[in-house]
Amino acid sequence: TLQMKNGDTVVLEHAIRAEPQPKVSYYYEEVDMGTVEALQALLDEIAREVDPQTAVSLYLPPVTYQGGITMQDRSYSLHGSTDGEHQTTFTGTVYVETRQPQIAELTDLCFSGKGGIGLSASDGVMLLGCTFTGWETAALARDGAWISAQDCTFSGNGTGLHFESNRSGFSAPGYFNNRFADNGTAIRILALRGSEVLDFTGSVFTGNGVDLDNPADHPVDLSGATQE
Q1: CA dist., res. 194 & res. 30, Å (int)
Q2: Residue 18 has what pLDDT?
């Protein structure tokens, strides 16, 4: 309620309506996801046939995908798996070229590269329990993106997390319990919208050439992190 100088009273109201969201899940035991070509074909089929408002989760096999994939038009939740020494692994770039309302959620995936970019995003991405090794840039947030990470490992990369985004419809400033080890630069922030403080509580920085390169002067809190 705003009391104006001229005696008027202005009342602002905000109504929120919550509705159930449909969800569909695909499992590698039931649907072919054994190769990167089969997985890309499945993603393209879902994009054509499943309503964009439906949340889609894919549970991937413990295989090494020789290459990467592109998510277009809609987002997915991708869940990796393990079988002994085998883990769901991508050796090529994973592109997130999606649109709101859902964001991409990537859980328990391994990104193993020999240079190049591991994850390239132009929309919101949540990383949970993922590992990035051997990339020139492990995870790149291009304009329109915000990449959040928790319980992830970035090791042996040129740059771990790289932000170069002036706009985004999603934000999640909690970067808890990550490990940044032996990277040239652990975190680089050239541009990132807003003023939310990036919180790295529980994260460990060890053996990096530079822990934080922040030309954008974005607020970052490393007080709860361990820097070795």
Answers
A1: 43
A2: 87
Q: Is 206 helix (H, G, I), strand (E, B) or coil?
A: strand
Write the pLDDT tens digit of every residue in 7-56: 999 998 999 988 888 999 999 999 999 999 999 999 999 999 998 889 99
Q: Is 174 exposed, middle or buried (0-12, 13-18, 19+ CB in 10 A)?
A: middle
Any idea what the Cα angle at residue 162 is, between residues 71 and 158, rounded to 5°? 105
Q: Is the pTM of this model over 0.85?
A: yes
Q: What's the start-to-end Cα distance of the chain, in Å?
A: 50
Q: How many CA atoms lie within 13 A of 194 on its CB side?
A: 15
Cα distances from 86 to residues 13, 19, 37, 138, 183, in angstroms, run: 53, 39, 19, 21, 24
- Rounded to an integer, what distance in angstroms lies between the CA atom of residue 120 and that of residue 96? 6
